[in-house]
Amino acid sequence: MLGGLAGLLLGEAAEGLKWLGDLFIRLIRMIVVPLVFVSIVSAVAGMGQVRRLGSIGGRTLALYLATTACAVVIGLSMGALFQPGVGVSFAGTTPKAVGEAPPVVDQLLAIVPLNPFEALAAGDMLAVIFFAILLGAAVLVQGEAAGPVRRLFEAGVSLMLFITRVVMEAAPFGVFALIAWVTGTVGFAVFGHVALIAGALVAGSLLQVLVIHGGLLRLVARLPALPFFRGISEAVLVAFSTSSSAATLPVAMRVAEKNLGVSPTVAATALPIGATVSMDGTALYIGILTMFAAQAFGIELTLAQLAFAGVTTVLVAVGSAPVPSASLFMLAAVLSTLGVSAEQTALVVGFMLPFDRPLDMTRTIPNNTADLAVAVTVARWEGELDAETYRAPPIE
Q1: Radius of gyration for the alpha carbons in the chain, expressed in angstroms and rounded
Q2: Taking the domains of the chain in order of start, what are their residue ranges?
Q3: Residues 6-43, buried b or exposed e (16+ Cβ, 10 A)?
Q4: DSSP assignment string, 333-353
Q5: Taking residues 132-146, what's their average pLDDT?
Q6: DSSP state of 385
Q7: CATH 1.10.3860.10 fits 2-391, yes or no
Q8: 165 within 8 A of 35, measured Cβ to Cβ
Q9: Residue 390 binned pLDDT confidence (cut-offs 50, 70, 90)
Q10: Residue 56 and residue 46 in contact, taking contact as beta carbons nearer than 8 Å
């Protein structure tokens, strides 16, 4: 609230505060890769039984794909309901060319790193997760012979969580600066320019978070949803202000363990995977923009085209980077299935890019709540959830 007020008062001068927000994001992103690496290795090594690795991983991926598919359906439905592309004019829009999306086979091959140290240095999360699971499984199979390695990674987790707590002391200042910058330079009037797309996104996000994620907790995990939403507020605010699922990961892991009662084993396995492959907000937004482009260019969509676009959107969302505005540059793969040319796609991206930051902040929230809802559900299934902690007031 103070950041929004400061942005309105300072206007363009709020740009001078951006460095403080950037510093906060850099601090968080600094700890993401080492935290994910040591947490996954420690979690897998401490599972006790090899079969539990497949159980947790399989259930996690299945739920992430299910929630992402629901997000695509909601996005396409919101686009059809709000009709944001009807009568739109691209006059004055500067096209923004996007590169071709890499083939799915190449994305899958890239999961296996040629050099694990290079993947760690580059922050290639899927490759880091793959190597961490492999290393953790090796420690698990070796048993007591690899005991010193297991204890080393357990100590590493403790150290990284301590650093995370220290970094989070700067959260109020970083969030203040980011909100002031966005409000001062872009302003709330941005939603007036793209009101229908913004309305479709907000409505779709609410449906995804309250109905899909809340329903997952209530109907599948058999837990009340209210303690969940009460306990994740800190992670949601960081997700909203940073627009990055990766940057929110350390906070989400802390919230999952301390406020929701998820065991470190499940939190360290499900949440890093979710920050990389679970992009409900991205899928939702791409679905809306798919309908926007079809309406703007007068394309009559058949049921088969919608289904194909939906499947492509799920794949694109899974491969989307967990960083701000990444989803805009994944549009080409989806729109090409509808016959939209590269030049037309560049127009859509160029039209949306100036207004994307507030929309990106909004769609990062479903990404984050999906990760946490799935982690709670998997923990419940695996008997790794402390129900008393889940229902208790969140720890300050």
Answers
A1: 21
A2: 2-391
A3: bbeebeeebeebbebbeebbebbbebbbebbbbbbbbb
A4: HHHGGGT--HHHHHHHHHHHG
A5: 86
A6: B
A7: yes
A8: no
A9: very high
A10: no
